[in-house]
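Tutorial sheet, problem 5. The two components below are modelled jointly, 682 residues in total.
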Amino acid sequence: MTTNGTVTGGAAVKDAPGADAPLVELRAAGKSYGNVRALHGVDLAVRPGRVTCVLGDNGAGKSTLIKIVSGLHQHTEGEFLVDGEPVRFSTPREALDRGIATVYQDLATVPLMPVWRNFFLGSELTKGPWPLRRLDIDRMKRTADEELRAMGIVLDDLEQPIGTLSGGQRQCVAIARAVHFGARVLILDEPTAALGVKQSGVVLKYIAAARDRGLGVIFITHNPHHAYMVGDHFSVLRLGTMELSAARSEITVEELTNHMAGGAELTALKHELAQVRGVDVEELPEGDAATPAAASTGRPVGEPAGRPAAGHTRKAVDET
Amino acid sequence: MSMTRATAPAASDPSPAPPASPAGGQDGRAAERSGLRRLMARPEVGALIAAIGVYVFFFAVAPPFREASSLSTVLYQASVMGIMTIPVALLMIGGEFDLSAGVAVTTSALTAAILSYQLTLNVWTGVIVALIASLAVGAFNGWLLMKTGLPSFLVTLGSFLILQGANLAVTKIFTGNVASDSISDMDGFDQAKSIFASEIGIGGVNFKITIFYWLVFAALATWLLLRTRFGNWIFAVGGNKDSARAVGVPVGLTKILLFMGVGLGAWFVGMHLLFSFNTVQSGEGVGNEFLYIIAAVIGGCLLTGGYGSAVGPVIGAFIFGMVSQGIVYANWNPDWFKAFLGVMLLLAALVNLWVRRQATRR
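Model answer (structure tokens):
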């Protein structure tokens, strides 16, 4: 049971040989809420300096997976290992103490407070003896600025309320904060979900920056394109089980998209749409494994095929 | 690290000189916030402008207002209210209300008066017991709030009614009257009076000691709010309770301590009233809780929490003092006081709303 982490189950083996031991590992892990099985038989390994992407539709079990790793819930089957030893967290604090930090969708920031106060909230630096113990504001501002710069975030005014930053920037501050407070594993819960194209790009850059600093990153998303841009390993969840687990070298973004969308269902959906809208089914790209690229545009499948994007897709598929 | 350095410049989003491109605003880069705008974003600026306006106004229309002794009266009026307004404002920044704050003052004074008189103790015993009782009321409010998750409006409305009823009933049980017995001839009275209710002469004008306490408390509260961990937590629990909890801020403890702070203020004002008048009317204090909240709001504290200062409520209380006394000095019908206060409140609320939009504008 307590063998060291290099002996990995199923999914993780496919990563580059000689990769360091996983920081966090799930082996056939699962979670049941009463008699509802939210997650079952999931294998996942997070290595330092790697981005592990977890993809899945709404309700696929992504949230449950995060909650287990971040210490909000406990797994009910399988194993959860940190640094090779089985663990069972009962509070997020315990996970945090083991270096597992979670950046939630709501980011855990206080909008009206200045950036630097948010950065150190709950872990403020102080100086002086007790009755006069006070915030070490200079040091906090300096440290916050350094950490943000190290992540490539340059803010001119750390006094501005964090609410004045864009969603992407706030996300980045939250990431930088987790990194500063000793996170070795960073769990990002749909960091790009509510963001525009440009802001998503910014966040992806910071995910890469965190990876380059040697952190293991779990990147939860339902956008395969975002995942493919930074990911080293991809796990697709579907109805609480692992549908796919593959290293970057083994999969293309088209295949990933198809897995993510669920190829067969997509075909069915396409036919339905065709009937509803009166679109010629022949005009639509095929939905099965042969031409998965259609869905990869992320646009409604019913879009007229004559558009440049679709045309391009087709060509790409032909080449495959 | 070297990798990071390499990434850093590339990752630095749009250039830090957004004024050139209008798109910069969309990126939330508030880099160009001018000094003036930052000043305007201070919570107490609106109140300061209003205070100057009110002062100039009464200075012009009411000649007696110009005398130094009038200033002493105005400041005294403001200080009695202002000492309570400070902890109420901190509580509001922490995202909660205390509707029992007004009657809690009376409860504290009655506790000290009745206990000392009935048991013929040194008044200091009563003072200490009153302190414990006041802190306990605050702790109870906070504890009930955290335990039940009910809004503080409801919880403290309950304790307001309980205290109001208990003040009257208990006083009648012991004195057969609606006021407590005079304690002016009891042991320790003079000493306590010198601490809670004496006067200090400066340049031939007597200033009540509460004025100095008021300013000292405001300075302490400002320090607490801006320079300590606890102050950081106050803003955090008021601004976003769930986020604060997620990063390890003890939300429950912070709120309970804030309610106890209100208890502390109530005790201090209660002691001042008791040693000024020797006796306490048990029905007093009702309605004052709103005045405290109004002064805090005029002073720039957000009703919704997470924003405000300790200086603002001082200015808010000063405006309150000026208006209530200025109307008298101007020989107007004092009945207009509340109407004037209402107008001030609405204006302050509008200014606050505008300030917040400015401060968080994308």
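Marking note: Chain A touches chain B through 46 residues (CB under 8 Å). Full credit if you identified this.
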